[in-house]
Task: structure prediction
Amino acid sequence: MLIADSAFVTGLQSHSASLELDCPAEDAFALLCAVEKWPVWLSFLRSARRQSSQPELNVGSEVVIRSCLPGDEEQLFEVDAFIANYRLSLVGAFSLRRRLDFRIERRTSCSKLHVLLAYPAYHGKLGGLLDRWQRGRRFSSALDDSLVHFKGLVEYKRDAPVLADF
Result:
């Protein structure tokens, strides 16, 4: 089940969504940490790569993202919160109002993914309303679709009996 909402804060646009996953939190978090795979399931990203060749993400790691969000073509983000198998949060290196936050809630036999996307909307209240009207619904819809795609990727089991006929 998808739950989406967006809080109205002057000068800041935010979109969030949640989705239940039928997999352990470790599997979901492993896919979240594969930065180069983000454009596969996050439809509003054109590319994503790590700035350095560190083997694992941790606090202070830098990620370069090309997205459809308003602003520069390529944006540098820094990991500002990292808790293994629970939280991965990135903040814009040059604009602290840009944020991409992933949280995985561990359940008994499954998990739940929460995503928050926030970016600045310029030109005051009117600009914020215009941005919400022009891009808001499209980003909310893209975020919902991205989570469904993430769910398919993380729950896919190659040896499942349902696929034996193919």
Remarks:
- Residues 1-8 have pLDDT under 50 and may be disordered.
- Residues 3-156 form a domain with the Alpha-D-Glucose-1,6-Bisphosphate; Chain A, domain 4 fold (CATH 3.30.530.20).
- Helices lie at 25-33, 38-41, 124-155.
